[in-house]
Amino acid sequence: MKNKFLLASVTFLSVVSLFACTSPKKESSKTLASSSSTNVVKETTTSSSKLEKEISDSDKVDVKTKRIGSADFGYVNIPSDWVKNDSIQVGDNIQYTDKNAFNIIVLNAATREKANVAEGVEFSADLIAQRFETRWNDSKLVEKKTRSTTTVGGNVSLKIHIFLKSGLQVAGWVFQKDDKVYLIVVEGFEKTITQFTPYVENTWSLDGTGAVTD
Fold first, then answer.
1. Which of 8, 49, 71, 117 has the most CB atoms within 10 Å of its CB?
2. What is the count of structural domains for the chain?
3. CATH label of the domain that carries residue 110
4. Residues with Cβ < 8 Å from 103, sequence gap 6 or more?
């Protein structure tokens, strides 16, 4: 189980570092993420395809969903059998994993102050997206990256799609609403990114009616 969380640690470090102070501590976070990435490549490159087949063979389609999130980060629908996983908690993110603890969704958001963006510097989704892309500039881990424009809950959003050499993928949606920039990251197999794209883009909102707290 521990090995399954190694790649997750890179995602969480990437998310947390977006809102780190622009100081030597920020560079330390980058170094830590890069170090973790090296270990992740060794652990996941040869195993993800096999695990994906095992999961595909054993999983049954679950069309039921539940609503998760918070007033700070917004709410989104996810499959009902996904679980909150505090054992890999880094920072103040909200994260859920599938029952195999391999596919992950992370929710976060930041004000100018939390993101440590100085006055006089434009605080925008593009700035946070650039930070997110920078945290994935590890050629040992990443095959390619793409950027596109979409909408999340009616808000114009940047979508960063990262293809890992392990065969896994990471999708990050970054968008601004009022005084916050919101970030939603999904990591896992290609089918997970495909499945979660409409969940993220069509169900995200600040309405937490019916949301669970498990």
1. 8
2. 1
3. 3.40.1000.10
4. 97, 186, 187, 188, 189, 192
Helix (H, G, I), strand (E, B) or coil at 62: coil
d(CA 124, CA 182): 10
Q: Give the domain extent around 135.
A: 4-203
Each residue of 20-75: pLDDT tens digit? 533 333 333 333 333 333 333 333 333 445 444 444 444 545 469 999 999 999 99
Q: Which residues pair with 176 in a beta bridge?
A: 181
Are 62 and 77 spatial neighbours (Cβ–Cβ below 8 Å)?
Answer: no
Residue 99 lies in a domain: yes
111 burial level (CB within 10 Å; 0-12, 13-18, 19+) = middle
pTM for this one? 0.78
Spacing of C-alpha 83 from chain mean position: 15
Half-sphere exposure of 178 (CA within 13 A, CB side): 7
Identify any residues that bridge with 96 across adjacent strands, giving them in sequence order: 84, 105
The CA-atom distances, in angstroms, between 181 and each of 36, 58, 164, 167, 212 are: 26, 38, 25, 29, 23
Question: Which residues have CB under 8 Å from 51's CB, separation 6+?
Answer: 100, 102
